[in-house]
Amino acid sequence: MEKSRTEMISDSRIEETIKHAIESHANGQTSLAVQELSALAAEFPTEARVHGYLATFLWRSDRFDEALEPARQASLLSPGSERASLVLFHLLWKIGQRVEALEEMKRFLKVSPSEEYSKMIKEWNLSEGDLPDIG
User: Fold this and answer.
1) What is the C-alpha separation between 18 and 14, in angstroms, rounded?
2) pLDDT by residue (tens digit) across 112-123?
3) pTM of the predicted protein model
4) Which of 8, 28, 73, 126 has the fewest Cβ atoms within 10 Å of its own Cβ atom?
């Protein structure tokens, strides 16, 4: 099914805003990136990548609590996105919500294998009995 002209314009606008936000962040203007992405997320509430980038830039601004909701939205809207899951996992871990972080890891691993999560588990170097229940 072909996209309508309106959908194509929306996709283009989303891509351009994300690209501009990335450039703003790279130039030290992360607050501008957050502002642009916040407005875009309000306009396109079902766009997982907008929420994902917003969460990432809030996280990079040490605004962890604010980053949590867009990270959850990204993971909810795109449950198979490893990137969205990892952002949510790391945010939850950073703010001390370790059980919730491990639940997110477990949720994602039921959907898809993850080299990154596997690497983390191996690096924890836990004994057999101490491994989190991720199966």
Assistant:
1) 6
2) 999 999 999 888
3) 0.84
4) 28
